[in-house]
Amino acid sequence: MPSSVAFAAYFMLLTLALGTASATSFSSPLTGAEYQARIGWGFDTDFFKSENGMKKYDSQIMADLKAKGVKNLRLRTRGDIFGFHSSTELADSASLNKLFQGYRTILPDMYQNDILPIISWINDESEVQATDAQGENFVEWWRRVAVALKDEPYELAFNLFTEIGTGNLKDNPAKYNDWTRRAISAIRTSGGNNAYRVIILGAPAKDADSLSRIDTSITSGQHYLMAEWHLYASGPNKQVGGQKYWAGTGSAEDRERVNKVFRDAVGWTATTNIPTWIGAWMPYDNIDASQNQEEVEAFACYFSTVARQNGIPWSMNKLDNFYDVRTNTWLQTQEVGRSSTPVTLSMPPILDALQCSSAPPVLSGSDSEVYLAQRRVRESRARSHHRHEMHRRMVAPAAA
Fold it and tell me: What Gene3D superfamilies does the entry give (predicted)?
């Protein structure tokens, strides 16, 4: 019979061992619906979009994101950098090992801070050309990633495509379904937790209305699937007659365009029982910089409000536009737009607008400008009051 001291020491060692063990032991499978309920809001990331993207990484990033309320990060990964440099080459083990090392660095920090990691695949050339060899490489890439991460907890999800925007894969639903079906099979048979890990399909043509192209044999009776879709990856704009047009606080027509994409997604879920997630959107025009600060905030508020009303979580494009990963600081301003006349935006009010309690009223012309200006004044005063209260609470104990 061990002494009480020896037993206490044994118990402490056992506790430490369990505490450092893989979270797999304590993680239970999450259905697609359960995973969707936990995604919340977050950002797309660039850590794995370049060979040395992880050089900018520091664990403090995750602590800062958690403090801001972030619940997910989409780990967009270039398959042509990590894995297959061309369709005619064999897998590059060295680059894959570097990728896996990067994943194993960032994933524990995400779990510790209750941030869901979603790995997504990018290879623009493969999506455009979609040759048989590229399809084989796509499936093999996912098989290797799945094997390497098979024992990761169920909080990790695999998003098969980041975006299918143009090319043969978009234009050939049969090929899309074949690639998707084979990738799912490769993941499901790779061992560990992958038989019940959430796999997130990519919309065949990016938008929610293309989800109907996914063969029902893929989705029927599946409880551990989701689907990703998006439309405003580069933000709204002022191209008259276009799907993404937005001005002022948003006219009834502007809002209906937003509402429709959500109806498409909700309708598909009702038919298939597969929940969805928005994998990329921006609240500002990242190309022509056509929206001013107030319009950006209005769109951010309206879009996020409609998303909440429909129970659809999202990731915003992208983290680096709001947070400097090199200095671990939230950005105060950011120059956006690829035109000769970019606009400088104040970023904190945009983040605040994402959490607005209700959408702005439908107004036009000068009424819209007045409303937005008044709202900004109110929010500025509220933030100032909050900072004052935080300072007062910190000073009061010291004075006592």
Answer: Glycosidases
Strand partners, 2: none
Q: Determine the Cα angle at 181 with ends 176 and 187, to 5°.
A: 125
Which parts of the chain register pLDDT below 50?
Answer: 1-26
* Bond from prior residue into 318 cis (ω within 30 degrees of 0): yes
Sign for the CA dihedral angle at 122, 126, 129, 131 comes to: negative
Share of the chain above pLDDT 70, in %: 84
H-type alpha helices, the chain: 4-20, 32-39, 60-68, 93-112, 124-129, 132-148, 168-171, 173-188, 216-219, 252-272, 293-309, 347-353, 365-399
Q: Which two tokens stand for residue 149?
A: 């991460």
CB within 8 Å of 398: residues ≥ 6 apart: none
CA–CA distance, 136 with 335 (Å, rounded to integer): 41
Measured distance CA(283)–CA(299) in Å, rounded: 6
Helix (H) or strand (E) holding 336: strand 333-336
pTM over 0.90: no
Pairwise CA distance, residues 156 & 39, whole Å:
11
Q: Which domains does the chain have, with CATH numbers?
A: 23-360 (3.20.20.80)
pLDDT value of position 12: 39
What does DSSP say about strands 343-346 and 333-336: parallel, antiparallel, or unpaired?
A: antiparallel
Distance CA 5, CA 243 (A): 71
